[in-house]
Amino acid sequence: METPPDSLLIATIAMLIMAIFIVIFVAYYQHRQSHHQLTVKEMLERHRQELMAAMFRGQEAERRRLAQDLHDDIGTMLSVAKMTLNQLERSLDRYSPERAQAYKTRQLLDDTLKNVRRISRDLVPTTLERFGLLAALEELVGNATNDQVRVQLEGHDSFEFVAPSLEVMLYRIVQELVTNAVRHSGASQIVIQFFRHEDELRVAVLDNGRGFDIDEVQQNRQRGLGLRSIESRLSVVEGHVTFDVAPGRGSRVIVQVPLENPKLASLLI
Fold it and tell me: At 220, is the secondary structure helix, strand, or coil?
């Protein structure tokens, strides 16, 4: 018995409608799954950023504690020891061996006090807290410059775009890059450049030293720690760093930080 044409048409339409419904349902389900996965990924990324920001805030708090202990405790004890030694030195005969030894000891105490103050200042740059990033970097440049290497700072106009919450992060990054260049590159000139490009701040640290193999350094747990720290700090504010380096030539490291990102910048507060 043959199926009436109308019944066949109705069955075909019903199957098409069912197929369309299944396709729509599958597409909707996949869309919901993709949206859910994206939401979870964003939540995980946000959580990672918050953890990194909390870690760096903890590091800064620990730096402050150590700097205060150095200044208030060790620095004070060294100063008292120096005063006591001065009194002892004055009581000794001017040309006696003991007075000469006391003088040498006092010089050692002076050098130790200077180093304690330097370490304390490196741990917590009070100039940064009191006068801002530009003044702190100018102080860093002055301290890093010596008879072997000259450090310059360029792009003063760009500092007006730096949010206060980003100043500590940028200072630590520049401090790390300059310290590495002074210690390892053998450079005679280091230039720190700040400039704005569209909606981001760019910081470039250039030197004319011997360069290095970026892959080799990153694999080295000790030397690569500073570079990984820079990348981790920048990931909190969705910034990134580019290493234009190679053995046998100078280095160029470029840091890029978005300026308009209040949600992420708030993580640093």
Answer: coil
CATH numbers and ranges of domains, the chain? 125-269 (3.30.565.10)
- Distance from C-alpha of 24 to C-alpha of 29, rounded to nearest angstrom: 8
In which residue are the tokens 């950023």 written? 49
Residue 46, phi then psi, degrees to nearest 5: -65, -40
Reported pTM: 0.69
User: pLDDT (tens digit, 0 to 9) for every residue of the chain, 269 residues total?
Assistant: 555 566 777 878 878 888 888 888 788 877 777 776 777 666 766 766 667 667 767 777 777 788 777 777 788 888 888 888 888 888 888 888 888 888 888 888 888 888 888 788 777 778 888 888 889 999 999 988 998 999 999 987 777 777 777 888 899 999 989 988 888 888 899 999 998 887 888 999 999 988 888 888 777 766 677 788 888 888 888 888 999 888 888 899 999 988 776 555 555 55
Q: CA–CA separation, 19 vs 17, rounded Å?
A: 5
Q: 165 vs 11, 40, 128, CA distance in Å?
A: 67, 27, 12
Pick the closest to residue 166 from 257, 30, 38 (CA basis). 257
Q: 185 and 207 in contact (C-beta within 8 Å)?
A: yes
CB burial of 175-193 (b: ≥16 within 10 Å; e: otherwise) equals bbbbebbbebbebeebbbb
- The strand pairing partners of 117, in sequence order, are none
SS3 of 124, please? Answer: coil
What single-letter amino acid sits at 172? R
